[in-house]
Specification:
The protein is an alpha+beta fold. The chain has helices at 29-44, 50-55, 130-136; strands spanning 8-13, 58-69, 78-89, 92-101, 107-119.
């Protein structure tokens, strides 16, 4: 299936508890930002919130993640997280992302994650149904 790779954006702001002793966002928080943006966009942009997957007995787990840190985010800084579906195949979806500082539009981070669809009851990988692929192929 061909993916249009439509980009969706979520705006965020750095909170005090996300800043480390070097006075910038700790590297572990960037994956949290990505997940927050994806949950927002699943509901707002794709029309299928995470709760809908849970009702179907399905979930998503991170299989692989890659983050390139370009510029640090700092306390109270506003930024955007833009994501798009690069590909879906079998049990996996590859999501690309970039995080940009709002004030300068300069990149703070970029990367990709592979998420695997799982059956909640068994914890095993599940093939992504065609109707979900079609919904996310925008």
């Amino acid at each position: 299936m061909l993916f249009k790779r439509t980009r969706f954006e979520t705006e965020m702001q750095v909170r005090q508890d996300e800043v480390d002793m070097f006075r910038h966002v700790h590297s572990s928080k960037y994956l949290d930002y990505l997940l927050h943006a994806r949950f927002d966009q699943m509901e707002r942009c794709y029309g299928m919130a995470m709760e809908e997957f849970l009702k179907l007995g399905l979930g998503w787990v991170v299989k692989t993640s890659h983050i390139e840190y370009k510029r640090p985010l700092t306390l109270s800084e506003k930024f955007s997280v833009t994501t798009w579906v690069e590909n879906m195949h079998g049990t996996d979806v590859e999501v690309r992302f970039e995080m940009r500082k709002k004030e300068t539009s300069k990149p703070a981070a970029a990367g990709w994650c592979t998420f695997t669809m799982t059956q909640l009851e068994t914890g095993r990988a599940a093939t992504i149904p065609n109707w979900i692929i079609e919904k996310y192929a925008v």
